[in-house]
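=== Structure Prediction Worksheet ===
Name of assembly: unnamed complex
Input type: mixed (protein and possibly other molecules)
Chain count: two
Listed entries:
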Amino acid sequence: MERRDFIKSSLVAGAGLAVASSPLASMTSCAPCCKMDKGAQLNISFQKYTTPQQTLAEKFDYMESLGVFGYEPHGGDLLSQFNEIEQNLRGRNIKVSAICAGFSGFILSEEPEKKQLFDTTMREIIDAAGQIHSTGVIMVPAFNGQVPCRPHNQQTRDFLVEELKNLGEYALQRGTTVILEPLNRKECFFLRQVADAAAICRDVNSDGVKCMGDFWHMQEETSDFAAFISAEKYLQHVHIASRGTRNTPSEDGDLDNYVDGFRGLKAIGYKNYVSFECGTKGDKLQVIPAALELIRKQWEEA
Amino acid sequence: MERRDFIKSSLVAGAGLAVASSPLASMTSCAPCCKMDKGAQLNISFQKYTTPQQTLAEKFDYMESLGVFGYEPHGGDLLSQFNEIEQNLRGRNIKVSAICAGFSGFILSEEPEKKQLFDTTMREIIDAAGQIHSTGVIMVPAFNGQVPCRPHNQQTRDFLVEELKNLGEYALQRGTTVILEPLNRKECFFLRQVADAAAICRDVNSDGVKCMGDFWHMQEETSDFAAFISAEKYLQHVHIASRGTRNTPSEDGDLDNYVDGFRGLKAIGYKNYVSFECGTKGDKLQVIPAALELIRKQWEEA
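=== Predicted Assembly ===
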């Protein structure tokens, strides 16, 4: 909280010279380290159903009119509508951000055929993701409901690290990555915190294995700022939603505060996408512009 | 790494007025938020066998000569030598910091008698800790070798939170706390990261339940800075050791870098103890002063 109360620093930058000052701040408030420009960019991305239009062309037109240049397709759609997506992107500024899952089976399954199914379908999506220059394919090691699952212990973590090494190197050869997503406890007890996902990336030690944070699931964190700092070079993607009901940012009023997290993103010089993964309570055509205004304002404030 | 390379800020503080500037820092380096004085203090603490002397009086004389005013007794010693410890503290500036474990059984045991043994012996130590004004009693939920242990799942986490609530309220009534310690994977897979311990504290929601970080076990973290920021108000204790072999700080040369972590401690205004839990490779009478010099220098630098 305290970190949010400081008086905004003025930042004067010359060629190789920067002066940050925090005037009139009391000695008990904190000068945010993220005030120095590390080149972070707010690149917003939408999923297919973020926008209300029917066709991809209409969706992309609307996104461009809002200054949104990232698109996060579902992995299933990427495979079944690859040509349609690729054709609709031509001549636009919009690029594909991450790919949202879409594979079958799961990596920690105890059933060989389900593990094999994951290996096969995940690689199909990685192939397509690479072809369309996606930043990476999002994956969850095991949802709570996915059973039988390997037990939650060090052996399973070692197995995961080894499997991810292979998968990451495969993705890297195709010009993309795999992105571990921590979820909240109700969806995935196995991986709930960004620092844990980052530690797995560190142990895997492949440029093809990255992690992400989702402002909704980050209800598990005690500090959004610290979570993103812990991920640093491994942070490849961010999901955003309103923080009370997982709808569109701004729909939950004061709960929708992303400043501490954005400060973390600025501190690590984050340049990947902040992508909407959320529902909508109201009229999308009103709610989406309001969400963008809120997010852009909080990014400036951070 | 980058965060360590900035040019040291100058800090000018007046009554309620602070100006932090980072001269000549390039735009890609980071002005550390922790440069603002949040009242953090470096209070060093030793365990019994940190010092080479035979009697407590000799140990305490030596500690005072070095400016070390915290003492972390083992829980077993606290019970068996309570009067001796208390008498030796009289008329000195040394205070008891945390109490290092000492209970029998463990909180996540599946055997009722072992769980009962934990409840009884832990409360005995808490009673003594409160009487001697300790900051808290350190506990690990389950070492890897402690079996049969409740399975690692959400139900067990819920059980732990409920049990800790009772224990924390008990400790609070006696003027002390219980302190969760994350260990590295080889010792305790169940709780490895400071952010996870902090999230447990948040869920327990008792001022009697806190957490700690141990620079040795923090090999599990990707960022010492982020780990301590995530703990913030829950951080009640810190252990320190050399970072390659768990000996005395400075004995592992360049590996013994605590600056990033100290920056985190400064950023949260940490005022509790940084306590030695480590062996010694060399002559204690030479190594301990060298360790203190290194730690104090790095604290200033942070």
